Amino acid sequence: MVLLGIFGSHVSMAIAQQILFEFGERKIFETLINGEQRSEPLKWVDVNTSDTTWYKEGEKLVCKGWPIGVVRSEKMYQNFIMHVEWRHMEKGGNSGIFVWCDAQPEEHSRLPSGVEVQMLELDWVNQNKRNGETPPIAYVHGELFGAGKTKTIPDNPRGERSKSVENRCLGVGEWNKYTVVCVDGTIKLSVNGKFVNGIRESSQRKGYLCLESEGAKIEFRNLQIIELQEGHIVPEHIVEEL
């Protein structure tokens, strides 16, 4: 077990912008269809977690879950395909990946604005009953929603959020596979081999990727980003560059 990074949570912004660790790889669509297998590592910058929140175990990235917060990608992305495998190590665990994210946490939540691709362990609904009622089970099978200031239109509404139309996630200790296609304000999510959710008309369409630490241990592996061609975009759909 190797701890990553050397930066604590009480450092200056200039130091905090330095690379905390590398995990995953970035590829370009045009090079792939031309038969080239070039890739480069994805580099991650701490936003408001700590130097001991994240560590590598072989090919896995492990998040301890505390403090609540995010790390962000070094670069911003507009149109892309993201593939990632993840598994929770605690019942009822909560996490996710933000796309098109501003990487600027709000004080009350410690989380930024962007579109969240939810990663909840199946027992979450049993541990978080409201007024004695269990939330819909679809809530834990890959919900999509605009977090913070970000607005979206859900394909399968549960209020302002979009729930999956089929329950496909696996429980604690089991690997799940997400494929996320993000193009011009529209997102489609495949859970374990089938597209089951989506949103459209996102108010943010170019921004950072953020991995979320939210109170429970989670493991990630095989993160790949395939960058697609840029689309038409107006300045108000692009987050501030950090």
Question: SSE layout and pairings?
Answer:
Blueprint (H helix, E strand, L loop, with lengths): L1 E2 L9 H4 L2 E10 H5 L6 E7 L7 E4 L2 E4 L5 E9 L2 E9 L5 E8 L12 E7 L3 H4 L16 E4 L5 E2 L2 E2 L2 E2 L13 E8 L2 E6 L2 E7 L6 E7 L4 E10 L15
Parallel strand pairs: 2-18
Antiparallel strand pairs: 1-4, 2-3, 3-6, 4-5, 5-18, 6-17, 7-14, 7-18, 8-9, 8-17, 9-10, 11-16, 12-13, 14-15, 15-16
Mean pLDDT metric: 93
Which percent bin holds the helix content? under 10%
Could you say which structural class the secondary elements and strand pairing correspond to? mainly beta
What is the end-to-end distance? 31 Å
CATH architecture: Sandwich
CATH homologous superfamily descriptor: Exo-inulinase, domain 1
Overview features:
single chain, 242 residues, mainly beta, Jelly Rolls, two-stranded antiparallel sheet, 3 helices, 5% helix, 45% strand, globular, disordered N terminus
